[in-house]
Design a protein that fits this description.
Elements (H helix, E strand, L loop, with lengths): L2 E5 L7 H12 L3 E3 H10 L3 H12 L5 H12 L7 E5 L5 H13 L7 E5 L2 H9 L1 E4 L5 E3 L18 E2 L6 H15 L1 H8 L3 E5 L4 H16 L1
Parallel strand pairs: 1-3, 2-3, 4-8
Antiparallel strand pairs: 5-6, 5-7
Helix pairs in contact: 1-9, 2-3, 4-5, 6-7
Bound molecules: adenosine-5'-diphosphate (ADP) and adenosine monophosphate.
Length: about 220
């Protein structure tokens, strides 16, 4: 049976960081909606140009655009065994759309880790985040520095600071999370899928807790 895991948590909680570990452990493709938008922007596709307007303001890309992008991705062959979703769904309408898509594939969301971190910590994490140009691997100047400053350990590409990690945009992104994404915690709690994780601990500790809880939930 395929396994679908949804990673919930505010921007900067550590979803992308933990996704790298989880996707290896469970051999699942890591699907980051934000990374797909950024890749489209890099290639200057129509989708990328449209998404940019929203991303620059720290707002969400409209549901219909985001849902059809994810549907296309989930229909690719590597997702037959399931997927690890990071940053999607982000609104109740997206959660409903995901549920419908998976139902069509005779599958369902199996587990939803919710990574909890205080707002103060989020701001510090986003301010120090460095992202790799080639693959989107994530570092932090203090908590997870690369071996050589400015260079990705994994593929040698340049590291950059995301435009939307600027303090002004970050504030709006966190507000948008509170207003539009937080209701999903209750949605998945009621569905019996939610796994609460304390995201304030070190990257390794959070990773160990997550893997242990996920093994129990999905294996
Ligand atoms: P998200 O995908 O949820 O937006 P990221 O995984 O990109 O978050 O993490 C945001 C920043 O915080 C990155 O710079 C990352 O290296 C750092 N980070 C992630 N998890 C932790 C942690 N547990 N402790 C300290 N820093 C962390
Ligand atoms: P992220 O990489 O998850 O921090 O996302 C970066 C930006 O991409 C967000 O601030 C949104 O503008 C956009 N985005 C990512 N995922 C979604 C989504 N599920 N729905 C709408 N917009 C999204």
């Amino acid at each position: 049976m395929p396994i679908y895991i949804v990673l919930l948590g505010p921007p900067g909680a550590g979803k992308g960081t933990q996704a790298q570990i989880i996707s290896k452990t469970f051999d699942l493709p890591h699907i980051s909606s934000g990374a797909i938008f950024r890749d489209n922007l890099k290639r200057k596709t129509q989708l990328g140009m449209l998404a940019k307007e929203y991303m620059d303001r720290g707002e969400l890309v409209p549901d219909d655009v985001t849902n059809s992008m994810i549907r296309n991705r989930l229909e690719q062959e590597d997702c037959a065994k399931g997927a690890l979703l990071d940053g999607y769904p982000r609104t109740p309408a997206q959660a409903q759309a995901l549920s419908d898509m998976l139902q069509e594939m005779h599958a369902k969301v199996n587990a939803v880790p919710n990574i909890k971190v205080s707002e103060e910590v989020l701001i510090e994490r986003l301010a120090g985040r460095w992202t790799c140009r080639a693959e989107g691997h994530v570092y932090h100047e203090k908590y997870n520095p690369p071996r050589t400053p400015g260079i990705c350990d994994l593929d040698g590409s340049e590291l950059y600071q995301r435009d939307d990690d600027k303090a002004e945009t970050v504030k709006n992104r966190i507000q948008v999370y509170f207003q539009q994404t937080m209701p999903l915690i209750d949605y998945y709690r009621q569905a019996g899928n939610l796994i609460e994780v304390d995201g304030a601990k070190s990257i390794d500790q959070v990773g160990e807790e997550l893997i242990a809880a996920l093994r129990k939930a999905v294996l």
